[in-house]
TrEMBL record:
InterPro entries with a match to the protein in the record: F420-G6PD/mer, Luciferase-like_dom, Luciferase-like_sf
Name of the protein: TIGR03564 family F420-dependent LLM class oxidoreductase
Gene3D superfamilies named among the record's database cross-references: Luciferase-like domain
UniProtKB keywords: Oxidoreductase
Lineage, top ranks: Bacteria, Bacillati, Actinomycetota, Actinomycetes, Pseudonocardiales
Keyword Nucleus: no
SUPFAM superfamilies found in the cross-reference section: Bacterial luciferase-like
Pfam families: Bac_luciferase
Ranges for domain Luciferase-like: 6-266
Length: 290
C-alpha cells in the first residue's frame, strides 16, 4: 500500500511547498492537495514545487470539474505535469451542489452524465489527441499539443454510476469518509482489478480517541449532510463523519490502516490530525509497500 499525506493549504504556497519537501524527506509516496471553495488553486500549488521537490507523486484529491472547461483543465494539468517533472496525478470530481450551484450559479444535475462527458473530452486531450465532440453539455473541436506524458487520472466516485464512469474512463477512484468494509464490499468490486483506490483517512494517534473523534465531528460533521457523503455513510451503515476517523494508540492506528490495504485500497491519503500529527506518519512508515 502506498502512503501519501494531505497538504494543508491554509498557510499558502510557501507552507505547501515546505510540506511537500518534508514529505519527500520522510520518504512518503505522495503528497495531495484538495480544492476548497474560496481558497488556493490546488494545481497551481503543486506546480510551484518544481520538478525535484517532494515525493514521487503529487496529486489533487480533488480539483473540481464544474467551474472549468475540460480543455482548460487539460491544458492546466499538462502544464503542471511538465512543471513537476511528470509526477502529477490529476484527481477530479464534480463537487457539491451547495458550491457549484449556490455559490457559482452553475448547473448541478445529471452529475454522472456530465462527468462522463467531461472525461470523454478530458482524457484524450491529456493524451494529445484531437477531440471533436458535440454532446449534451459540451461542444469541442480542439487539440492540446505540448510535449510530455499525460498525468494519471482519477475520479472522486462513491455511488454506482460514478464508479462505473471511473472504471471506464480513469485509472481509479478517490474516496473519503469511508471505512475498510465499504472499500471491500462496494468500491473494490465495482472497479477493474488494476484500478487504484485512493482513500483519504482522517487519522489521530491519541490516548483519548473519543475526544479526538468529537473534535473531528465538530470540524467536519456537516459533510454528512451533503447528499453524496450521506449516501456513502448510509451504505456503510454509518451516520456521522466521526465514525470514519481512525483514532487510538500506535498499535490501534496501524491495525486500522492495515485493514484498508486488506480491503483493497491501493493508496492512503493520511489527514494527520491531533496534537502530534507526525506520530501518524511514524506509524504509517511501517505500512508502506512498493
Amino acid at each position: 500500500m502506498r502512503i501519501g499525506t494531505f497538504l494543508d493549504t491554509s498557510g499558502g504556497p510557501a507552507a505547501v511547498h515546505d510540506a511537500i519537501a518534508a514529505a519527500g524527506r520522510r520518504g512518503l509516496d505522495a503528497a495531495w492537495t484538495n480544492q476548497l471553495p474560496g481558497s488556493w488553486d490546488p494545481l497551481a500549488l503543486l506546480a510551484g514545487a518544481g520538478p525535484d521537490r517532494g515525493p514521487g507523486e503529487l496529486g489533487t484529491a480533488v480539483t473540481l470539474t464544474a467551474p472549468v472547461h475540460p480543455a482548460a483543465l487539460a491544458a492546466n494539468a499538462l502544464t503542471v505535469q511538465a512543471a513537476v517533472g511528470g509526477r502529477l496525478t490529476l484527481g477530479v470530481g464534480p463537487g457539491h451542489g451547495w458550491f457549484v450551484t449556490d455559490q457559482l450559479g452553475l448547473p448541478y444535475d445529471a452529475v454522472a452524465a456530465r462527468t462522463r462527458e467531461y472525461l470523454e473530452i478530458l482524457r484524450p486531450l491529456l493524451h494529445g489527441e484531437h477531440v471533436t465532440h458535440r454532446g449534451l453539455f459540451h461542444t469541442v473541436d480542439t487539440r492540446i499539443t505540448v510535449p510530455g506524458p499525460p498525468p494519471r487520472l482519477l475520479l472522486s466516485a462513491l455511488g454506482p454510476r460514478m464508479l462505473a464512469v471511473a472504471g471506464e474512463l480513469t485509472d481509479g477512484t478517490v474516496a473519503t469518509w469511508v471505512r475498510p468494509d465499504l472499500v471491500a464490499d462496494h468500491l473494490r468490486p465495482a472497479l477493474p482489478d488494476t484500478a487504484r483506490i485512493v482513500v483519504s483517512v482522517v487519522t489521530v494517534v491519541t490516548s483519548d480517541p473519543d475526544a479526538a473523534r468529537a473534535g473531528i465531528e465538530r470540524t467536519f460533521g456537516a459533510a454528512a449532510d451533503m447528499p453524496a457523503y450521506r449516501a456513502v455513510l448510509e451504505r456503510g451503515g454509518l451516520t456521522r463523519i466521526a465514525e470514519t476517523v481512525v483514532a487510538g494508540d500506535e498499535e490501534t492506528v496501524a491495525a486500522e490502516l492495515r485493514r484498508f490495504a486488506d480491503a483493497g485500497a491501493t493508496d492512503l491519503v493520511l489527514v494527520a490530525a491531533g496534537e502530534h500529527p507526525e506520530r501518524v506518519l511514524d506509524v504509517a512508515d511501517a505500512l508502506r509497500t512498493p
